[in-house]
Design goal:
- This protein is an alpha+beta fold.
- 56% of the residues lie in helices and 18% in strands.
- It is built from 12 helices and 14 strands.
- Strand 4 and strand 5 form a beta hairpin.
- The longest helix is centred in the middle third of the chain and has 51 residues.
- The chain is rod-shaped, with a radius of gyration of 49 Å.
Length: 523
């Protein structure tokens, strides 16, 4: 009893695990992109072939119907000739056995021709015989018919029927179905005739497909299907393999990037698909930006460390001198306190720039928008930095807007953006140079443009796009100036938060021209 119970449990586990095993096999098969593409392409190809076959059958439906009627007529002629001789024997004998043999003959002919045979008396249309024995005693209503003449053809046995048979053809509804029929006179009578009617049901698409397949030689059919399946499989496998082969370099690149190899790039020579090539180009651009951003952050850390170390060293040194009494003279103590204050302000400014940029990039910095005069805003920025220009022996020129206009902006933020551009220009303009700040209306008064032009060393063309990136700074050895690399990034974020745009035009050795554009309304 125990063994039977254990065997039953084992069988039950096997039955339960069979679907799970099948599901695992299917999941493993469809777990790869190549297998999914292979299956999808084969399914699409086979569906397309099936649809084409159905369409061909629909198009050939009239031709197949005509061929069917022609075959019925070809069968009708020898059938009528033999039936007439049998019917003559029936009339001569006049007994039930002969009639039964005659009707059996008609049924045999109907089965051999996959058709239905009726005997109909004319006039009147009474059905006296039905090979399927369902319409005997009913009235034959043929409806519209047309004459169908054909010449005698060679029979399958090789014999020729020399006498042509006149017939009619048409379509009739019987028992809720449409039937094609061919009718001819079996035996003329003194007051009418007995007609022999051969019928075949209206062929459906599936039935026509079955007949078309059945007419093909079995070997040719199997060979054709096998060849077609092989071609579809090979083409689908080639297409799926081409996609996966093109994606392989991209997968290798993502793995290399994930391992920290930021210098890895995809070689377009191994990619043939246009879409994957575009994706590879985008990946390479992304890797370039990531590498540049990481390098910029490293440079920023190094530069900020230096910028922090310098004021901290000064603060520490002067504060220590004040504490231990090294600086005892009142004038020296005043100077030390001033230096400590200036360096603390420098640290505060650097920290504020980092915090503001983080807020701008995250979108958490809210703008207090109001209608302001662009000339007033520009004049305030220029006057705030005029002492710095005088100290640097740089001429600061101001060119206001001649027409009256208003812009909708956060005055403090936009003033800071303009001040950052002006401060940047003053830092890079040598003594005796000129910095010009101008306001003008563009786009038929729909925008106001602030421009800050200098006579500094200019910016190399390869760096004009990158100067707006955070942490990026032009080579200090070439410019002789230092900075956090955040000023222009803050300008860009502030202006774009106002829905405006920024840009720069520069020629090495002839200075630079920075511009800010915001929406405006002229009056």
């Amino acid at each position: 009893m125990g063994r039977r119970l254990q065997a039953s449990r084992t069988a039950s586990k096997c039955d339960e695990s069979a679907p799970l095993i099948a599901a695992k096999i299917m999941n493993r098969f469809f777990n790869t992109l190549q297998n999914r593409l292979l299956f999808t392409h084969m399914l699409v190809a086979l569906t397309g072939l099936a649809a084409a076959a159905l369409l061909l059958l629909v198009i050939q439906a009239p031709l197949r119907t005509e061929t069917m009627l022609q075959r019925m007529a070809e069968w009708l002629q020898p059938t009528v000739v033999l039936a007439r001789s049998n019917f003559a024997s029936l009339r001569g004998a006049g007994d039930d056995a002969t009639a039964a043999r005659f009707f059996d003959y008609l049924r045999t002919q109907a089965d051999a021709q996959n058709a239905r045979i009726l005997l109909v008396t004319q006039p009147g249309g009474a059905i006296v015989f039905d090979s399927e024995e369902r319409l005997a005693g009913q009235i034959w209503e043929a409806g519209a018919a047309q004459r169908f003449e054909f010449s005698p053809r060679r029979m399958r046995g090789g014999a020729m029927m020399g006498m042509p048979v006149e017939a009619t053809r048409g379509v009739v509804d019987l028992e809720g179905s449409s039937w094609h029929y061919v009718s001819t006179i079996l035996l003329p009578l003194h007051d009418g005739s007995i007609d022999l009617v051969m019928l075949r049901a209206q062929p459906g698409i599936l039935h026509s497909m079955g007949e078309a397949i059945a007419e093909l030689p079995r070997g040719l059919l199997l060979g054709g299907l096998l060849a077609l399946a092989t071609v579809v499989f090979l083409l689908s496998r080639w297409t799926a393999g081409a996609v996966t082969r093109n994606l392989s370099p991209l997968m290798e690149a993502t793995h290399a990037l994930a391992r920290g190899n930021l210098a890895y790039r995809i070689d377009d020579a191994h990619v043939s698909l246009a879409e994957v090539s575009a994706l590879a180009a985008s990946f390479n651009q992304m890797a370039d930006r990531v590498q540049q951003s990481q390098q910029a952050q490293r440079d920023f850390v190094a530069n900020v460390s230096h910028d922090l170390k310098t004021p901290l060293t000064s603060i520490q040194g002067y504060s220590q001198a004040l504490l231990d009494g090294t600086i005892s003279a009142p004038d020296a103590q005043q100077r030390a306190a001033l230096i400590i204050n200036q360096e603390a302000q420098r640290l505060t400014h650097l920290v504020e720039e980092v915090i503001d940029l983080a807020r701008l990039e995250s979108g958490s910095l809210h703008l207090h928008l109001q209608a302001i005069d662009p000339n007033e805003l520009g004049a305030e920025a220029v006057e705030s930095l005029r002492p710095l220009a005088e100290a640097a022996d740089v001429t600061l020129e101001w060119s206001p807007l001649s027409a009256s206009a208003l812009i909708t902006a956060d005055a403090a933020r936009l003033r800071r953006a303009l001040a950052n551009l002006l401060d940047n220009a003053l830092k890079h303009t040598p003594p005796g140079g000129v910095v010009t700040v101008a306001v003008e209306a563009i786009e038929n008064g729909r925008q106001v443009q602030y421009t800050v032009s200098d006579t500094g060393p200019g910016i190399p063309p390869e760096e004009t796009e990158r100067i707006w990136e955070r942490f990026y700074r032009i080579d200090r050895a070439r410019t002789g100036r230092s900075g956090s690399g955040l000023g222009l990034a803050i300008v860009k974020e502030i202006v774009e938060a106002h829905g405006g745009s920024v840009g720069v035009e520069s020629v090495v050795g002839h200075g630079s021209r920075f511009w800010i554009r915001v929406g405006a309304a002229l009056f």
